[in-house]
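Q: Sequence in, structure out?
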Amino acid sequence: MTIPKTTEEKCWAITSSFEGCGYTGLTGNFDGQGWSWGLLSWALGQGTLQPLILGCHEAGPETFQRSCTVEVPNLGQTDLSEQLLAACRKPVAEAVAWAAERCDADKRPFEHWRKVFENLGSEPGYQALQRAHGKSYMDHARAIFAEFGFKTERGLALCFDIAVQDGGVKAEAQARFEGSAPAGPEEARLVTLAEEVASAALPAFQDDVRSRKLCVARGRGHVHGRDYDLERDFGLTLGPVVEA
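A: Exactly. Output:
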């Protein structure tokens, strides 16, 4: 893997790795979200995947149709673009049910649908659109970063993962952090924030939140069955943020 150059690129790469999709990966209904796709696992159940797919179509209808034309069992080469667009215009609950019906017994999307999203995610223009759709998360991360007075690459990466996975720092987590955060090296403050954010998550998700946040705060850890060293794998350090 090519090591990203800017801190924002490193943030994208790390959180996308935790999310497990990259540009092309499509995950199924294991979490009740129907389908999730792309760098930040935009999901039908959250209503976040629909505008991205519709935006891809608007940005390049011919490319979209070509990407959606795949081999379907018993049908041969089939254009699935209209089916996908229609699903993205349904109410959220109906869209989730539609996607769930197109998953196997293990709740994985059928292979031809995975191929559609692999094709879409391989298009450079649609990759740029994914990054554009994620700009609000980076803006939010920058705001958290400034509010907490962090200065390092690792600090921005933690704030970005918080913005994506947790939607921000909950008030109770911030209050506990302000009451207990140690003075001194930034790493210790990052670890404290990671613990408080995890403690404020719903009980079913606390372990996952904690493993991700502590991995970023400490620069290494074990997340979703993988051992990470963020400096080795992504070039992320405790040095200053590297801009474009």
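The mean pLDDT is 94.
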